[in-house]
Every structure is written in structure tokens, then in C-alpha cells.
Design a protein that fits this description.
The chain has 349 residues and is α/β, with parallel strands linked by helices. Helix content is 43%, strand content 16%. It contains 13 helices and twelve strands. It has helices at residues 4-11, 15-23, 30-43, 49-56, 74-87, 101-113, 130-137, 167-180, 196-211, 228-240, 253-265, 283-287, 299-314; strands spanning 61-66, 91-96, 118-121, 147-152, 161-165, 186-190, 221-223, 247-250, 275-280, 293-296, 324-327, 330-332. The strands form two sheets. It has a six-stranded parallel β-sheet with strand order 2-1-3-4-5-11, sandwiched between helices. Helix 5 (74-87) runs parallel beside helix 13 (299-314) and helix 10 (228-240) packs across helix 11 (253-265). The relative contact order is 0.12. Mean pLDDT is 91; it is low at 52-56. Pfam families: LacI, Peripla_BP_3. InterPro entries: HTH_LacI, LacI/GalR-like_sensor, Lambda_DNA-bd_dom_sf, Peripla_BP_I. GO terms for molecular function: DNA-binding transcription factor activity; transcription cis-regulatory region binding. Residues 2-56 form the HTH lacI-type domain.
Length: 349
């Protein structure tokens, strides 16, 4: 079996240069990289991961905990994480909590047992779980030395680096556009009210109503669980209860797609009678019939930034004082609000 010494000899470089190429730890010229990589291929060299980990006390492994593998939001985020991490020589351990807080905590424990260098987490914990957030923040101290990045949730007040969007702005942007299109009775299909992401989107909705001089009515809010079925059932409840509305803001695209199905079943014309807007700009929003107007969240970019910031922390390269990164959102106009929209399929895949 070839050793790193054999690779160095074949490439005509030092052992440290081979190590730098393998670990992407220091700058190496393209010419030397090519020689080293060619030698690795010719000798069929494989890195002894166990030996490397014992020497460096790192595993070059990142743990990722997401809320659900069934979410159409997650794949593009994971693609971004994997894309960046692999370029930096890190492997990924992936877990899903299925929106169960106790399961999320078990996932974190499993990652710690596997000696990961850092964790990216899309937590489902209620905003009331202060002690849990403090626990995550403190993982970087003491013997564990595990860094944590929060995905979607802004937890920087607990000392957790956060990669997130301005959810209040997004909720306000969605509601303002419905108002601009002539809606005066705007209903909301919300996610779980224990999540500050949803709380912020609802605050944006209420702020837009207030600034437009429109009243807020509690009976115009139905709660879902982010799934398509919950959006469908929420819209059915609005219709069954004869709630008057001419516009709907759904706090994610999946619930909006379910709501769209219920509206079509009820014979309500979209966008003539009811205008509908989602949040996330997942791939289904552009292929729905009619195509869904939505707030765009750059999901691949979010994954890349989360991985980049975590690796920077692990390797001691994060700028001093930096504690969060806000991903900008923007409105994508499609046919559930604009019948003459020519926005076609917009996929990031």
C-alpha cells in the first residue's frame, strides 16, 4: 500500500506539500497540485483517516441536523453545504429530527459521539428553550471544542453563529404586494407559532396591514405544520368557516401548494378572485398551475455560507466579532397574483 512518503517521492515534492494538497490547509501552486494529484492517482493512494485524526485531533467531519428530509426546502440547502464542505476536504454526517425536539437532541448527541468538528443545525426548538440554545453555544468551549452554526433561525443573541434571512421583511414584502394588487382582506396560513421564524413572518404581515390602515383579524390566521396537506386543510377550514378573504399569504411554499389545490377544488378563480403568495421559492413554486408567486430565499447560497462560516470557525479564520450572516430575500411574481406574468421555470438545481 502506498504511503504519503511514496506520493511525495513520485511527485518530487516534500511530504508537507502533499499534506497541504490533501487537506487544503495551505496555498499550493496549481502546478504542484497537479503533480501531487497525478502521483496520488498513479499510486492509488488513500488517506489514513484514523492516523490523520489522531495527529490533528480533528475528524474533518461536519454534522448537519435538519428538520425534515421531506421538506422541499432542504435539498438545495444540503447541496450548498456538501458542495462547499467537499471542496474544503470535509465529509458530512446527516440527520433529520422530523420536527421532534427530543429527536433533535439525540441527533446532536450522536454527532458529538462521532467526534464531529462542527454542527450545522436547523433547530425545531421552541423560542422558549433558552437553556438548550445556551448548551449549543457552549459546545465550542471545554473538551468538546465543537462549533455550531444555526441555519434559518437567528440565534446570535445566544452566542450561536446564525445564517438566516430577514423573515419580518419577507412577511411584510409578501403582504405589501398583495395589498398593492388590490387585496384588502388578507388571510395567513402560518407554520407552528412556537417558531420565531414564523413569528417574525407574522409580525411582517401585521406591520404591513397596520401601515396600510387595514385591520388585523385573528380569524384570518390558520396554523399548519409546513406540509402540503396542512396547507390544504387550513384553506378548507377558511372556506368551511366562511371566512372572507381576497388574498392569502402562506408562510411556506409547501402549504401554499396545498392551499392552491383547495382553492381550485372550491371553484375559486386564481388570481381573479383570490391572490396567493408563498415563501421560499422552492422548485414546485414555478411548476405549479398556476405558477406560485413567492418570496425567494437563496437556498443553495444559504447552505454554502453556513458551511463556509463553520469551516472558518473550525480552522480559526472567522473574522473577530462576526456573529451572523443575513441572506437577502426578494419577491418573485408569478401567476397566482399576476395573470399575465411571463415568469417561467426558475430552478437552482
Amino acid at each position: 500500500m502506498a504511503t504519503i512518503k511514496d506520493v511525495a517521492k513520485r511527485a518530487g515534492v516534500s511530504i508537507s506539500t502533499v499534506s497541504n494538497v490533501i487537506n487544503s490547509s495551505k496555498y499550493v501552486s496549481e502546478e504542484l497540485k497537479q503533480r501531487v494529484n497525478q502521483a496520488i492517482a498513479e499510486l492509488n493512494y488513500r488517506v489514513d483517516v484514523t492516523a490523520r485524526n489522531m495527529k490533528t485531533r480533528t475528524t474533518k467531519t461536519i454534522g448537519v441536523v435538519v428538520n425534515s428530509i421531506g421538506s422541499i426546502f432542504i435539498p438545495q440547502v444540503m447541496n450548498g453545504i456538501q458542495n462547499y464542505a467537499s471542496k474544503r476536504g470535509y465529509q458530512i454526517l446527516f440527520y433529520a429530527s422530523d420536527f421532534i425536539f427530543e429527536k433533535e437532541k439525540r441527533c446532536v448527541s450522536l454527532l458529538l459521539d462521532n467526534k464531529v468538528d462542527g454542527i450545522i443545525i436547523d433547530t425545531v426548538a421552541s423560542y422558549k428553550e433558552k437553556s438548550y440554545f445556551e448548551y449549543l453555544a457552549n459546545l465550542k468551549t471545554g473538551d468538546k471544542n465543537v462549533f455550531v452554526v444555526s441555519l434559518e433561525r437567528n440565534l446570535m443573541r445566544y452566542g450561536i453563529y446564525s445564517v438566516h434571512v430577514n423573515n419580518l421583511l419577507g412577511g411584510k414584502m409578501a403582504t405589501e404586494y398583495l395589498i398593492e394588487k388590490g387585496c384588502r382582506d388578507i388571510a395567513v396560513i402560518s407554520g407552528p407559532n412556537s417558531m420565531d421564524v414564523i413569528y417574525d413572518r407574522l409580525c411582517g404581515y401585521k406591520e404591513a396591514l397596520q401601515e396600510a390602515g387595514l385591520p388585523y383579524h385573528a380569524d384570518r390566521i390558520e396554523f399548519g405544520d409546513y406540509t402540503t396537506l396542512s396547507g390544504y386543510l387550513a384553506m378548507k377550514r377558511f372556506i368551511t368557516n366562511a371566512v372572507h378573504f381576497d388574498g392569502v399569504f402562506s408562510c411556506n411554499d409547501q402549504m401554499a401548494i396545498g392551499a392552491l389545490k383547495a382553492l381550485k377544488e372550491s371553484g375559486l378563480e386564481i388570481p381573479d378572485a383570490i391572490k396567493l403568495i408563498g415563501f421560499d421559492n422552492t422548485y414546485v413554486s414555478s411548476i405549479a398551475v398556476p405558477a406560485l408567486t413567492t418570496i425567494n430565499v437563496p437556498k443553495f447560497r444559504m447552505g454554502v455560507v453556513a458551511a463556509q462560516k463553520l469551516v472558518d470557525m473550525i480552522e480559526g479564520n472567522l473574522e473577530e466579532g462576526e456573529c451572523s450572516y443575513e441572506i437577502p430575500v426578494n419577491l418573485i411574481k408569478r401567476m397566482t397574483t399576476d395573470a399575465d406574468s411571463d415568469n417561467g421555470i426558475e430552478l437552482e438545481w
